Amino acid sequence: MLLYQRSFIVVFTILTFLTIGSFGIKCYQCSSDTDPEGVDNCGAYTNFDKERHIPVECNSDESKMPGTFCVKLTQQSPRGFIWDGRWRQVIRRCASVANTGVTGVCNWGVYENGVYWQECSCSEDSCNSATNLGLAFSTILATLVISQYLM
C-alpha cells in the first residue's frame, strides 16, 4: 500500500510540473469576419503577418477566450457558394477544450451547407500563426473535390 501511495505522489508531482508550464501560453487572436472591407488581417487569403499581431496571454484580460492551447480554424465555401467566387474565413484564438481531447492535431470535415472546415490545435507559444497548415487544408479540399467527381 505504501508503494502505491509513493507512486501516486511521484506521478502527481510530475503531472503538476507539466501542467504548470501550459498555463502561460500565448496565442494569436483574430478573425476574418471582423476585418475591415478589403483587408485581410487574419490571413484568410494571404500569409498571416506576425509583425502586425502580438500574441496574447490566454489567461489574461486581453484574451477573448481563456485557454491552455491555441487554435486555428479555417472555413471555405465550395465553388459557386457566393456569386463572386470562394469565400474563406480564418479564426485564430485560445481554447480550453479540444474536440478530440488532444492538441497538436488537425481535424477537418464538411458542414451540411457544403462549407469545408479545418481546426488545428497546438500547445506552444504563438503556434497558431502557422501558414503551412494552408497547404494541408488545400490538399484535403482537393481530395474531397476529386472524390466527389469520381463517385
Average residue pLDDT: 75
**Into how many domains do the coordinates divide?**
1
- The N- to C-terminal Cα distance equals 61 Å
Structure summary, number of beta strands: 7
Which regions have little confidence, pLDDT < 50, spanning 5+ residues? 10-22, 132-142
- Which fold name fills CATH's third level, the topology? CD59
Radius of gyration: 19 Å
- Written as H for each helix and E for each strand, in order along the chain, the element string is HEEEEEEEH
Category by helix and strand content = alpha+beta
What's the CATH class label?
Mainly Beta
Percent range for helical residues? Answer: 10-25%
Features:
Protein sleepless, 7 strands, two-stranded antiparallel ribbon, 151 residues, signal, five-stranded antiparallel sheet, CD59, single chain, alpha+beta, GPI-anchor
Overview of the molecule:
- The protein has 151 residues and is an alpha+beta fold.
- 25% of the residues lie in helices and 23% in strands.
- It has one domain: Ribbon (CD59).
- The protein is built from two helices and seven strands; from the N terminus they run αβββββββα.
- Strands 2-5-4-7-6 form a five-stranded antiparallel sheet, covered by helices on one side. A two-stranded antiparallel sheet has the order 1-3.
- The longest helix is centred in the N-terminal third of the chain and has 19 residues.
